[in-house]
Amino acid sequence: MSMFSEFANEVVSTMKVEHDYIHELAKKVKLLEARVEQLEGKE
């Protein structure tokens, strides 16, 4: 049982790291999109 819960904890913490990474990536993408719109608006 304890081996399984250790494994489950590892999976959960890995998923949290992935989630944070994806969240940061999404923020960067939104910033890039806003920047591109600004540049296109200047033309």
Q: Your description of this structure?
A:
- The chain is mostly helical.
- It has one domain (about 1-43).
- Helices cover about 95% and strands about 0% of the residues.
- The protein contains one helix and no strands.
- The chain has one helix at about 1-40.
- The mean pLDDT is about 90.
Looking at this protein, list some descriptive labels.
43 residues, rod-shaped, mainly alpha
Distance between the termini: 63 Å
Q: Percent of residues in helical segments?
A: over 70%
Mean pLDDT: 92
Evaluate the radius of gyration: 19 Å
- Main β-sheet, in a few words? none
Strand content: under 5%
Number of helices: 1
- The number of E-state strands comes to 0
How many domain units? 1
Structural class: mainly alpha
Secondary-structure element string: H
Give the overall silhouette. Answer: rod-shaped
Which residues sit in consecutive blocks of at least 5 with pLDDT less than 50? Answer: none
How would the blueprint of this fold be written?
Layout: H1 2-42
In summary, what is this structure?
By secondary structure, the chain is mostly helical. Helices cover about 95% and strands about 0% of the residues.
